[in-house]
């Protein structure tokens, strides 16, 4: 799900959002592969979004148990196609390796970085990236999974912790970590 980038003439200035929302955070091979794959799938001058990274993560992560997540949200994850569940069109939120990110995507990656650092989960595992991608209920990733409200989001967060992370992060409050 890519949204056309607006022509600005120049790359984003360094006094704004960080160019690389994953800077300083180690990534597992699965997460690095998912990020690389989603960046490669992004067409020039399009913004990378949360749904594209979620789809790449699901493809790259053969070792985690996605079965309950896939069953709980039948067909929507499996049939999601890029562009079908875009992030809210709020403009450019930063860059990752030269690719422009939606605002929601940049926030999701920063949220995943905060979770990784706060809970000492480094290098960042797939479950942490997944938590970042669903931290904002309005994101394309949440909508691809059929998440429409905080209650459904809470259930998804529980499943991600149990099945992908295989650890409960206590009183994880994503709204505290999901800051612009």
Which helices and strands, and how do they pair?
Elements: E1 3-4, H1 29-41, E2 46-47, H2 50-60, H3 67-72, H4 76-79, E3 92-96, E4 99-102, H5 103-118, H6 126-133, H7 140-144, H8 150-165, H9 174-177
Antiparallel strand pairs: 1-2, 3-4
Helix pairs in contact: 1-2, 2-6, 5-6, 6-8
Structure description:
- With 180 residues, this protein is mainly alpha-helical.
- The chain is built from nine helices and four strands; from the N terminus they run βαβαααββααααα.
- The chain has helices at residues 29-41, 50-60, 67-72, 76-79, 103-118, 126-133, 140-144, 150-165, 174-177; strands at 3-4, 46-47, 92-96, 99-102.
- The strands form two sheets. It has a two-stranded antiparallel sheet. A two-stranded antiparallel sheet has the order 3-4.
- Helix 5 crosses helix 6.
Mean pLDDT: 82
Rg, alpha carbons: 15 Å
Give helix and strand order, one letter per element, not per position. EHEHHHEEHHHHH
Q: What's the shape?
A: globular
Output the number of helix runs: 9
Output the structural class: mainly alpha
């Amino acid at each position: 799900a890519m949204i056309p980038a607006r022509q600005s003439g120049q790359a984003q200035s360094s006094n704004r959002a960080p160019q690389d929302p994953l800077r300083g955070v180690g990534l597992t091979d699965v997460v690095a592969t998912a990020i690389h794959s989603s960046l490669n799938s992004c067409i020039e001058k399009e913004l990378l979004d949360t749904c594209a990274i979620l789809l790449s993560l699901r493809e790259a992560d053969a070792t985690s148990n996605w079965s309950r997540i896939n069953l709980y949200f039948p067909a929507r994850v499996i049939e999601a196609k890029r562009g079908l569940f875009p992030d809210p069109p709020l403009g450019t939120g930063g860059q990752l390796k030269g690719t422009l990110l939606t605002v929601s995507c940049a926030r999701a990656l920063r949220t995943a970085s905060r979770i990784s650092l706060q809970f000492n989960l480094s290098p960042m595992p797939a479950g942490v990236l997944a938590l970042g991608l669903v931290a904002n209920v309005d994101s394309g990733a949440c909508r691809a999974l059929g998440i429409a409200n905080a209650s459904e989001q809470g259930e998804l967060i529980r499943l991600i912790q149990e099945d992908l992370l295989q650890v409960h992060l206590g009183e994880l409050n994503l709204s505290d970590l999901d800051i612009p």
